[in-house]
Specification:
homodimer; 404 residues; alpha+beta; eight-stranded mixed sheet; six-stranded mixed sheet; 11 helices
């Protein structure tokens, strides 16, 4: 297990005003752990989201995508152990029923309830056990923490992912908290597996939506574990206004500060997911600089971050930069081989496309737990960073045995 | 080691008229094996080729791409242990010198000599040892077999890849032989790592070029081991006309028969490469059927064949078809989830997008050494097959330790 030491875990218990949590055991995949959770806001909140761009979408994603048009929400029910994907009409009925049971228990409209699921694809939801568990989930409201929710939604994750930040708007202190789960089937152009961002800030729908989109583009869309895009990726952001600040509008100075904070928050979460990539022994940041455009920099960085050969070399402490050159070459960007510089942390291994003779020192750098690979293309001024991890025998083991 | 049992190895010694071979040890990466080889045709031959589409091209690829414009050739020098890629101007000079030394030894023009290299990227060629070895390579002409050449060009391959076929044109029996190497850094839209096709058929340049292009598209371009495209991929086809048939021209009946034979030959070689994928325990064929177009079928099949999650599940004997659905969904093709059928060999696991309840039987199928995954999209009549292998802990081990 690789855990980011730099994250301030002390702050994680500061959750925003008016949000209550509950977790329970529905033994969805197997018994022995809390695997279902409820997020509830005392007040109806502004709610926006982003979803997987996979054409095969899980039932909860399909349901949420319809409800989110209203821009409003008050509760989210989440489960691990079953993705409720590729489950046909029954899957849609099940997702809907989950929200209706919660709505009835909370005495709110079911259109204000969202659902997210993660786990095995293609297995019907065990609705009998879920129906039995929902009363205790409702009854337990306020007895669990946001960290408990983060724990309940874990699948192959080895630690719960939670982060909080504060921002002062006028005289009000607003809190923004985020939890997420990752580990496998993580690839850009979706969001990430599951992420919930909760805040007591007062902000209108357009501003929250714009800020979320920007922060996801700069974080979860620049993260890859294995290049496999999930059917269930969901990011939901709720803001209930209970911090009583004057409402943040798109384009204002307050918006700019909120957006910056949200970017920091999602960036930290994306890093946590990379740290906890399945089987990872190393956190890897790929930074492509001096590119012709951000799009080209991102494309090149993703090609490197998705290369099995680059990632196994990093696992093996081998500064095999030839594999990075090869990945750059097939990434589809414009490039000149004889201009490329490559660094592992601060050790330069390639100067103008050829070896600079520091492979041994670079190999030593690779023994560290955090690796930054910097590539300078000398084609312009744009840059992009992508987070990933190494590819190890444990990744194979986890994924060969996932359903057993 | 997984070796295809169905290939007829008896035929492999029937090499075409007029080709002579030589191998030697230049200790390019380390001593202890033959790592340099020469293919020589007694008569100047028609020579055509295909090369990697990677923007980072190895020096020998750059050299060959210029020389091949002539459509003529008489000798190929090949080495393993060093790719001569990312080696700058010195690399180009070295590649050129290798061909010049051979040309001088054979007393032919250097423009008729081609060079191919495979191995580590970014390390200068050990030209001292290569210069010392070339006289014995020239002196040994005729003393080695084509299989010896196939053996000398192996890197992480576990068995030499060689195949021969015969075709009767008029009263002449023509032989076509192919050797190749694969194992890692194998991904479509290049050719494959290295492949040499030799024939004594009389055929003109256009016909040989068209037939090669078609056969590569249907074989090496439908093969993926790890999704990493190499800097060195080279397919060269030589036809020296020594079978004395009346020359085969593009569009004739003889051309159609030759083209069909060449497709069979390259198909067998592509299969051999998949069988011998790094760390492979299983050969996997992904067949996408009833697609709207061949391009869509190929795109979908490649997305599945490149999915780490699909390939680790196969290694683990787990018929986790949800990962196949997810890969279809992100492949970029048009599809309707509720129309998809999926089979592992003859066991149907998905009917109209949902589980058909045969995961256990399918898991048993996965214990076999040859797996065919069939996907029916019910969107049209086109189909495409792609070859790959499972992803195992040995792949990680091989690639984490490749340079050590």
């Amino acid at each position: 297990m690789l855990k980011p030491e730099h994250i301030d875990y002390k702050s994680k218990k500061d959750t925003p005003e008016g949000f209550l949590f509950s977790t329970a055991e529905a033994a969805i995949k197997k018994p022995g752990r809390k695997d279902i959770a409820l997020i509830y806001s005392r007040k109806e909140a502004v709610l926006v989201g982003m979803f997987t761009t996979n054409k095969v979408k899980a039932a909860p994603v399909k349901l949420d995508m319809k409800r989110i048009i209203s821009g409003k929400g008050q509760a989210i029910i989440v489960n691990s152990g079953n993705a409720n994907a590729c489950t046909g009409k029954k899957g849609l009925d099940d997702a809907k029923e989950m929200t209706e049971l919660i709505a009835r228990g909370l005495n709110i409209k079911s259109s204000l309830v969202y659902v997210a699921s993660t786990g095995v694809i293609g297995v019907p939801m065990p609705m009998g056990r879920i129906r039995q568990t929902i009363p205790s989930l409702i009854g337990g409201i306020g007895k669990a923490s946001l960290e408990d929710v983060a724990r309940a939604i874990m699948t192959t994750d080895t630690f719960p992912k939670i982060i909080s930040k504060k921002i002062k708007i006028g005289k009000s202190i607003c809190t923004i908290s985020g939890i997420c789960k990752g580990a496998g089937m993580i690839c850009p152009d979706m969001a990430t597996m599951l992420c919930f961002i909760l805040s007591d800030i007062s902000i209108n729908k357009i501003a929250l939506s714009k800020a979320l989109k920007e922060s996801v583009e700069l974080s979860f869309n620049r993260l890859t574990i294995d290049g496999d895009m999930s059917t269930n990726d969901t990011v939901l952001a709720m803001a209930n206004g209970m911090a009583k600040n004057s409402q943040v509008l798109y384009g204002s100075n307050e918006y700019a500060r909120f957006s910056k904070t949200l970017i920091q928050l999602t960036d930290e979460m994306a890093r946590m997911i990379a740290y906890d990539g399945e089987g990872a022994t190393k956190f890897v940041e790929v930074s492509v600089r001096e590119a012709a455009s951000v799009a080209e920099a991102k494309k090149a960085a993703l090609a490197i971050a998705n290369s099995n050969l680059v990632k196994t070399a990093i696992f093996g402490n081998d500064a095999n930069w030839g594999r990075i050159m090869a990945a750059l070459g097939y990434s589809g960007i414009k490039m000149r081989e004889d201009k490329v510089d490559i660094f592992f942390n601060n050790v330069q291994v390639v100067r103008n496309g050829i070896a600079s003779g520091n492979d041994k020192e670079a190999g030593e750098e690779l023994r560290k737990k955090e690796i930054k690979i910097t590539i300078k293309l000398k084609n312009g001024k744009a840059l992009a960073n992508v987070y990933t991890c190494d590819l190890t025998g444990d990744y194979i083991k986890i994924n060969a045995e996932y359903r057993t």
